[in-house]
Design brief:
Blueprint: H1 2-29, E1 34-50, E2 53-68, E3 74-79, E4 85-92, H2 96-99, H3 109-138, E5 140-143, E6 149-152, H4 157-160, E7 168-172, E8 175-176, H5 180-187, E9 195-201, E10 204-210, E11 213-215, E12 220-222, E13 225-227, E14 229-232, H6 236-263, H7 274-285, H8 289-307, H9 315-328, H10 334-361
Antiparallel strand pairs: 1-2, 3-4, 5-14, 6-13, 7-8, 7-9, 9-10, 11-12
Helix pairs in contact: 1-3, 1-7, 1-8, 3-6, 3-8, 3-9, 6-8
Length: about 350
């Protein structure tokens, strides 16, 4: 349990730190004043001021933020001359005046765009380094043509029949198996048909019986096993190329998944929130540091893509507002910006509650 908790905190902390570091570095480079760089939410656990910036670690490690002067809006109610409150409200940018030209809204629009995009860009850069390190130190796995089981999926026919990783399939219903591809070929069209399987384990020949089931997604008979893998060690240049290729593939798959979600071809029941992600991170952490880093790379890409969605309160929503400002030649009115941000927060909180409900009911 301790390993699971540490693993989940490590993943969340790493992704948030890298994302917020992107915003922080570009804000500094473009001349903005950053008043606070925080990892986590809630009460301060640790803080230290260096120069003009307060660096803080907060109690809830599920997020983070940069407090950039002149970026956040506040509502101030006007007071009439008798001291009573009027119905009119004023929208102001705190700290804008004392920050002068270093306030967020006084910087050039290209600088503000760069700051907004920097977080997601860092989430795309991090996986490249992780994948590169994985390929360089752990090698590259390719499916083995040998009929040796690499993994057995829990609660599927092979697992229930007693097969294990490392078993070598010798025959299926008396038919010899010499290549991994022959297993799939012999199973096809025979879902719900009992199969006698002869296999070799630790030099001994054993047998069992299983009944393949039909996979609804592919309409193929399956028994719940994956092939074993062969590993080879790539060089530095090849590892770098493989890291880029893997990231491009994953980004394409994730974007495709989002499109399917919008089209309704993928159920929203598959969505996971913080609870589900934390549980998965904890389970992966038990497998070791390298699988955990691989999982963090996958989540980092996910975070980068989601943050670029054109939803108010996300980086993508901020960027769209800046594009509109560039096209109009002037910024949106503060009151409009404020209510757009409120709408975005409502959408995000609703989505988080929905995904958390999904996590708790799974």
């Amino acid at each position: 349990m301790i390993i699971k908790i540490i693993g989940a905190m490590f993943v969340f902390g790493l992704l948030v730190s890298v994302h917020e570091l992107g915003h922080f570095m570009v804000a500094k480079l473009t001349g903005m004043r950053v008043d606070e760089f925080a990892i986590g939410f809630g009460p301060k656990v640790w803080s230290k001021k260096h120069g003009e910036t307060l660096y803080t670690l907060r109690a809830v490690p599920l997020g983070g933020f940069n407090r950039i002067a002149g970026m956040d809006y506040e509502i101030i109610e006007n007071m009439d001359r008798e001291g009573g409150r009027s119905k009119e409200k004023v929208f102001v940018v705190p700290d804008e005046e004392d920050a002068g030209e270093r306030a967020y809204f006084r910087r050039p629009i290209w600088a503000r765009m760069a700051v907004i995009l920097a977080g997601s860009i860092m989430n795309f850069i991090l996986p490249l380094f992780i994948f590169f390190g994985l390929f360089l130190t752990q090698g590259v796995a390719t499916p083995s043509p040998e009929p040796v089981i690499g993994a057995v999926i829990e609660d599927r026919p092979a697992a229930m029949a007693g097969l294990r990783a490392g078993d070598r399939i010798m025959t299926l219903d008396g038919q010899p198996v010499n290549q991994w591809s022959e297993i799939s070929q012999q199973l096809q069209g025979k879902a719900e048909h009992p199969f006698k399987v002869t296999y070799q384990r630790d030099g001994k020949e054993l047998s069992t019986t299983l009944i393949p089931e039909e996979d609804a997604a592919t309409n193929r008979a399956v028994i719940g096993i994956t092939s074993s893998a062969m590993y080879y060690q790539p060089g530095v240049i090849e590892a770098a190329k493989l890291a880029v290729t893997k990231e491009i593939y994953l980004i394409g798959a994730m974007v495709g998944g989002l499109v399917q979600l919008v089209q309704g071809t993928v159920s929203t029941a598959e969505l996971s929130g913080p609870v589900g992600v934390a549980q998965m991170a904890g389970q992966v952490a038990e497998q070791g540091i390298w699988p955990l880093l691989g999982f963090a790379a996958f989540l980092s890409l996910n975070l980068g893509i989601v943050n670029l969605l054109p939803i108010p309160a996300l980086d993508g929503g901020h960027f769209i507002m800046l594009v509109l400002e560039a096209l109009r030649g002037k910024p949106m009115k503060p009151v409009v910006m404020y209510y757009i941000q409120v709408t975005g927060v409502v959408i995000l909180v609703s989505l988080m509650l929905f995904t958390t409900f999904n996590d708790l009911t799974k």
